[in-house]
Write a structure and sequence with these properties.
single chain; 507 residues; alpha+beta; Dipeptide-binding Protein, domain 1; Dipeptide-binding Protein, domain 3; 12-stranded mixed beta sheet; 4-stranded antiparallel beta sheet; 14 helices; 18 strands; 27% helix
Amino acid sequence: MRTTRLLALAAAGSLALSACSGGDSVDTGGGGGGGDNVLVAAVSAQPDQFDPHVTTAYPSFQVLENVYDTLVVPSAEDLTFEPSLATDWQTSEDGLTWTFTLREGVTFHDGSEFDSADVVYSYNRIIDEELSNAFRFQNVESVAADGPQSVVITLSQPTPNLLERIGAFKGMAILPENAAEDLDLTTEANGTGPFELESSDASSTVLTAYADHWGGEPSVSGVEFRYITEPAAALTALQNGEVQWTDNVPPQQIEALAGDDSVELQTTPSVDYWYMSMNLARAPFDNRDVRRAISFAIDREAVAEAAWFGAAQPNQTAIPEDSFFYTDYAPFEPDQDQARQLLEQAGVQTPLTMGLMVTDEFPETVTAAQVIASQLEPIGIEVDIETLDFATWLDRQGQGDFDAFYLGWLGNLDPAAYYQEQHQTDGPNNYQKYSNPQVDQLLQQGSAETDEAARKAIYDEAAKLIVDDVSYLYLYNPDVVQAWAPGLSGYQIRADKAINFETVELP
């Protein structure tokens, strides 16, 4: 999510979301939460809402991953796509028609039966109302039922990443037909997933197991997502037995925790990236030389170390090094002289003040912003760090009310997810207002190219232009870091940060 999305939010795949402000005292509650067989998970922020087609907030998707299903889903092992609500699919020889066979015997949480009308409704709702993920249907001409157990998606051009487009995360969830008319989806939910949404307030979100889930009843009777903003407080709650799982681990303690028997700690390279972006609709950041000056002034290794203490890899492009689509391109080595020269060339009078939006609900953004401020000060740029609650952060991003912001995109599984909606002219997540016709053309080509090597070459070229123009100032790819109570079983850490508690068993 990616900021917007999600972690987008992150990302999305932004990161996204609201929660209590950091610095306040944190009440972690008492005991193990609402019942002996309820998993209590400490997360850093509360959902902004529960409509999967509208929210772009990673904290929302932490919950929704357990409530809704998609037609296909990334496997936990290697993120390749496998059946979920669709049991299989066929593609026409010209690549323009995909036919999905739907799973039988699936019911929504209200007991109603799932069929093709629900898929058609869900996808057309996203398309017709131009909701958050409408861009994922950019090549879709129609979605139609072919009987109760079959759905046909017709495309305008070959779309090799269609499975990623419809299944990468629960923003593409299948809702029951007319759900938006029958429910207030911002506060209510009716999915086919392993857990039902029971309640949500300023301190926690509570799910209960859905006994009739098509994949079998979950092993735990429920999940309580408890919002604990401060990583140190979340870790203490885990060590004290007040919670049994958290992804809010203090980065500076990762190495020490590896040998600590009081917690089970796991890390894995992620598919996420973190970045800073400047507002191209606001002078002087509309000047490419100014953005490049700032990029030359920043030491990404120092930023990554400050934010993640060795659990992140500096990267000047978005895609991590272990991906087939990674490109080794790093034109900006720290060079303050070059930075000053570019500012002078741009006619910028220093000192220049730049506001930088961060959120204490993702504490690493605050820490990293302080390092960035210290690196820009010698070239005459004074950084005004604006630490906001996430709801305010998201609102100001959406309104274009910023000089610059810092966040990450989570759960990216395809090169289009890393680049297309963020950098295409008028893209739905192009909050920085970047526009380069050559990039637009390349991104469109990449979305239709079926040969993997040719597709990589297209995205490599697009990535170099995006980096050179500093549409995003890419910083690093972090590891996924999660911890849980010793003896907890059935949980699998994932590179896409999807959190699924369906098979978890408590000690």
